[in-house]
Design goal:
CATH superfamily of chain A: Beta-grasp domain
Helix content of chain A: under 10%
CATH topology of chain B: Methylamine Dehydrogenase, Chain H
Radius of gyration of chain B: 20 Å
CATH architecture of chain B: 7 Propeller
Strand order of the largest sheet of chain B: 3-2-1-30
Helix content of chain B: under 10%
Number of domains of chain A: 1
Distance between the termini of chain A: 48 Å
Number of helices of chain A: 2
Structural class of chain A: mainly beta
Oligomer: heterodimer
Largest interface: A-B, 32 and 41 residues
CATH class of chain A: Alpha Beta
Order of helices and strands of chain A: EEHEEHEEE
Number of domains of chain B: 1
Number of strands of chain B: 30
CATH class of chain B: Mainly Beta
Structural class of chain B: mainly beta
CATH topology of chain A: Ubiquitin-like (UB roll)
Shape of chain A: globular
CATH architecture of chain A: Roll
CATH superfamily of chain B: YVTN repeat-like/Quinoprotein amine dehydrogenase
Strand content of chain A: 15-25%
């Protein structure tokens, strides 16, 4: 079994060895980490966390727009680690997750993947 | 009369809207409170609030029923029975069905055995609903005689349009209620009027679109609704769609007249901040028109004017007054709709909101704006709460995380029109025992203005 080391930066750098095949929410909750969650299929954003270092596979998520992805957010209920990772968890990590959509609109390339258009390169 | 004010000779509810208005005053309220999305790792819960001014615990939460798990996002709820089975002595308005939008769990709560301390009777797991019906994200609940139908806003993966879950009176899943969703793109609220063989349904968005929060750009990409659907109620299939366009962006709460003979109804278009009225004309054709248009308001820090965002509408039991909330502006309005084509603006109060016209009310900082409302059966007391939906709260009113929501009571003048905030009633959800929570929909044990339908 491949395992990766997950470090929780805003939980005194606690570390956990987890199975790479299982979603992080499941693995971490099983180990007693108290995490928020809602839909458990990658659609509702409640379990969002910030990936500080490392890589995950979160192909199944449909909650995040491209700006949230660029800001490092991952959806723990579907994200599986593909390397050792450092995370910030819980609403303390949600500083750039929510924005007033009227004051801070998204550029076309920052929308969700299914409707985003590629960013135009500067000439 | 029984303890909850309903006649004991027959089934639940009342013989007519006029009878309902004669019921005793509501003594307790049931209100949703949530921790989902707040950072507090506790279950959402159902509050019982003392609404009896003679009681020593008036205007306080007197009991709290926690759900079994976290992350449900309790939202709307509905009774197992209402006046639609008034003639059935075998039925009783005993259970509140309290769904979790995010978890899809349905909590069946016994409110009759001890009305001041409701208890959990049964849970229908979201996983069972998904497996048996491929539906998720429960929203509106209406009983129909002894059956129950629930609008489900998504399929099991959170894609639109979802459909309707059918439960029997023992809370067993019968299956899908509808025979077809036709070309309907999204689901949200619905109301039926059987004497016209019609149900009207409105449109929010796919759960995967609205649950993570509101991206304004997605409206332009047609990810949010702008249509109203008229169903053949007996055939359980949509018959006609009204395209509301820019006048009807995000049509949410649907209210028919309580008078079962009337064909008039109303929907609030949240983003357009309009009230849309529909009716059946002399040729038996359904017509619609915009009757109220709330102007966007300038804001010192906004590059564009702020839309009202009409998050809810409600009709008084006598169908004379229409109430609605502008969640972003911070006002509740009252219109006399005796002539439904020509509403008269008769009352308004301010509480919270982004325009900051009334940041503090009754000694409590109001975070959020007026959102869910429930009117007493006699039309004189309107209870209002401030939270809309956890992710949307976090976008527009981030301070609600530390301040929590609040509930106020508005005294409504049913003679001449007019509204005033009651100075002696306030429930501050910022001071809940487990930390600040957010309050949402309210229902009364004896039925209310958004539950009861007459056949």
């Amino acid at each position: 079994m491949t395992t990766y080391r997950i470090t929780l930066a805003n939980q005194n750098d606690e570390t956990y060895e987890v199975d790479h095949r299982r979603p992080l929410l499941e693995s971490l909750r099983e180990r007693g980490v108290d995490l928020p969650y809602g839909c458990k299929y990658g659609g509702c954003i409640t379990c969002a966390a910030k990936l500080i270092e490392g890589t995950v596979n979160q192909q199944a998520q449909v909650a995040l727009n491209n700006r949230q992805l660029a800001n490092g957010y991952i959806i723990l209920c579907v994200a599986r680690p593909t390397s050792d990772c450092t995370l910030e968890i819980g609403v303390e990590s949600h500083d750039t997750l929510y924005r007033n959509p009227f004051l801070d609109p998204l550029a076309p390339h920052e929308l969700k993947a299914d409707i985003a258009t590629p960013k135009e390169e500067a000439p | 009369m029984s303890d909850n004010g309903e006649a004991t000779c027959c089934g639940p509810g009342y013989a007519s809207p006029a009878d309902a208005m004669q019921a005793p005053r509501e003594k307790i309220l049931y209100t949703i409170a949530i921790y989902t999305g707040t950072g507090i790792q506790k279950p959402d819960y159902l509050c019982t609030i003392d609404a009896d001014p003679e009681s020593s615990t008036y205007s306080q939460v007197i009991s709290r029923l926690e759900m079994p798990g976290i992350g449900d996002e309790l939202h709307h709820m509905g009774w197992n029975a209402c006046s639609s089975c008034h003639g059935d002595a075998g039925m009783e308005r005993k259970y509140l069905i309290v769904p979790g939008v995010r978890s899809s769990n349905l909590h069946i709560v016994d409110c009759a055995t001890d009305p001041r301390n409701p208890t959990l009777f049964k849970v229908i797991e979201g996983s069972e609903i998904k497996a048996k019906t491929n539906l998720s994200a429960p929203h509106t609940i209406h009983c129909l005689g002894s059956d129950i139908i629930i609008s489900m806003l998504g399929d099991a993966q959170g894609n639109a349009p979802g459909g309707y879950l059918h439960l029997n009176k023992d809370f067993e899943i019968v299956g899908r209620w509808e025979n077809s969703m036709g070309d309907i793109k999204f689901g949200y609220d619905f109301w039926y009027q059987p004497r016209h063989n019609v149900m009207v349904s409105s449109e929010w968005a796919a759960p995967n679109t609205f649950m993570p929060g509101f991206d304004l750009e997605e409206v332009g990409h047609l990810k949010y609704g702008r249509e109203l659907h008229f169903w053949d109620f007996e055939k359980k299939e949509p018959k006609q769609t009204m395209y509301l366009g820019e006048d009807g962006l995000i049509p949410l709460e649907v209210r028919f007249h309580h008078d079962p003979d009337s064909s008039h109804g109303f929907v609030g278009a949240a983003l357009s901040a309009n009230i849309i009225h529909w009716w059946k004309d002399n040729a038996d054709e359904w017509q619609w028109e915009k009757i109220i248009d709330v102007a966007n308001e300038p804001h010192p820090e906004w590059p564009i004017p702020v839309p009202g965002v009409i998050s809810v509408i409600l009709l008084s039991m006598d169908d004379r007054f229409l109430y609605f909330c502008n969640w972003l502006h911070g006002d509740i309005r009252q219109y006399d709709i005796s002539d439904p084509h020509n509403p008269k603006f008769t009352g308004q109060i301010w509480m919270g909101g982004l325009l900051e016209k009334a940041p503090e009310v009754n000694g409590v900082k109001v975070t959020g704006g007026p959102q869910m409302i429930q009117l007493s059966l006699d039309g004189k007391r309107l209870y209002v709460t401030t939270s809309l939906f956890s992710t949307w709260d976090n976008q527009f009113y981030p301070e609600i995380r530390t301040n929590g929501g609040c509930m106020l009571m508005i005294n409504c003048d049913t003679e001449n029109g007019g509204m005033e905030i009651d100075p002696d009633f306030v429930v501050d959800f910022g001071k809940e025992p487990n930390g600040p929570s957010r309050c949402h929909e309210t229902r009364y044990p004896g039925g209310d203005c958004t539950s009861d339908i007459w056949l």
